[in-house]
Amino acid sequence: MNKRMSRRTALKMMGTLAGSLAVSAAAPRPVWAARRNPRWEKSMAEGLQWVARSQSSLGHWGGNTYPTAMAALAGTALICAGSTATQGPYARHIRRAVDYLMSKSRANGLIGDPTLDNRYTYGHGFSMLFLSQVLGEEEDAERRDELLRTLTKAVEFSGQAQTKSGGWGYVSAKDGNNFDEGSTTITQVQGLRGCRNAGIPVPGDVIERAKQYIYGCKNADGGISYSSTNRGSSRPAITAAALAALYNAGAYDSEHVPMMLEYCKKNLYRLGDSVRSFGHWHYTYLYYSQVVYRQGPEEWEPFRDRLYDRIVSEQKSDGSWEGTIEPIYVTSCNLIMLQLDRAYLPIYQR
Question: Is residue 2 part of a domain?
Fold first, then answer.
């Protein structure tokens, strides 16, 4: 069977789905999915149910901390389970998330509210990623056109927000005096790649400049610095995210990739603690898991087993996870990781 078959087709294969834990945990898998431990399945199902229960009637999650980013990440965790905006146990929640993010699209293309979010490029990038994955499964012509318009404007905003160095900062280049840093740059690259995969025109020079930005931040040890204007020690978290973004950008054969990969293997392969990930363990492994997954089964499976066992062991009794950022963020990151090898989303496929 084609590994890149649509989630809609997969859902039909899976039969009637219900929102209960028993059905969600026991639902048949696509035939290409890796063999999975029942403990992971149970943990994943409980986490998904917590996300669904925690959504507000307006479509967002959590408090006032980065509301756009949280909605996009939570929505991505739900579509990783195979649901779409029209089918599956989480279709209603996905539609709410889509409606919420679409309501945050501004005339200049930004998806977010700069008056409430002083790091709005995160939400913008995650929203492009989520909405672009939804677009591929949208059957309603009017809603599809609306998504196309929103994402086209969003891509234009990202291009205009890019700094002279080729990266992005917490806000646009204009609002942030051309400050840039690695984590928001990676978010933009993945969002733009998702849009391009969905058929939205993305200028090649925007992606090329972003790639050159990442290469320019590389240190002699193969790691990536925090920013082009703040060169210093390498950051394992930023390096892992940069590798994931380069893979999304198609730069598998770049001369820089082997050194970056070796740096990550040295610093992250054994699931290092928050000290080596600069306090952002979940962010780090959200991206590094994507990197290892793309290396193939021999690399992925032993790493996955350790990663998933650790995630499951830290889950709370209500199905959520906690960390340095609010629970919806940590829970969404963990659920995306737990569902990587279910292979529903094109952006995360090998």
Answer: no
